[in-house]
Recover the amino acids of this structure.
């Protein structure tokens, strides 16, 4: 199972400061409290669109409104429920919330549990 998380930086914060705080504080907390549940944990930072090829550029190619797209792979649905239980703990949850106040625009935060699908051709390679 995969969880996709869309994150946006706090107003007035630079993208570089957002990445620095996320990588050096929040990721550390995630590994400390949730890392035993992770099969994989990746942070993707969208790049600005500097140029587009073609006479009529693709309007779907645009700068992201999000500063990070995080992917967390979990073993199964039980791990997802356990992750939620840990975050709901009043002490651990407060640690995460307090850290998020330093770098995250919490109202824009989006979390999506996902079922990843691969085509037959992708599975064969």
């Amino acid at each position: 199972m995969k969880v996709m998380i869309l994150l946006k930086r706090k107003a007035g914060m630079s993208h570089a400061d957002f990445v620095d705080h996320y990588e050096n504080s929040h990721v550390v907390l995630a590994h400390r409290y949730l890392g035993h549940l992770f099969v994989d944990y990746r942070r993707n930072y969208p790049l600005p669109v500097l140029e587009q090829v073609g006479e009529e550029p693709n309007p779907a190619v645009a700068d992201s409104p999000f500063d990070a797209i995080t992917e967390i792979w979990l073993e199964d649905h039980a791990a997802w429920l356990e992750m939620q239980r840990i975050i709901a703990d009043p002490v651990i949850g407060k640690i995460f919330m307090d850290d998020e106040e330093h770098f995250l625009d919490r109202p824009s935060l989006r979390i999506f549990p996902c079922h990843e699908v691969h085509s037959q051709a992708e599975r064969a390679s």
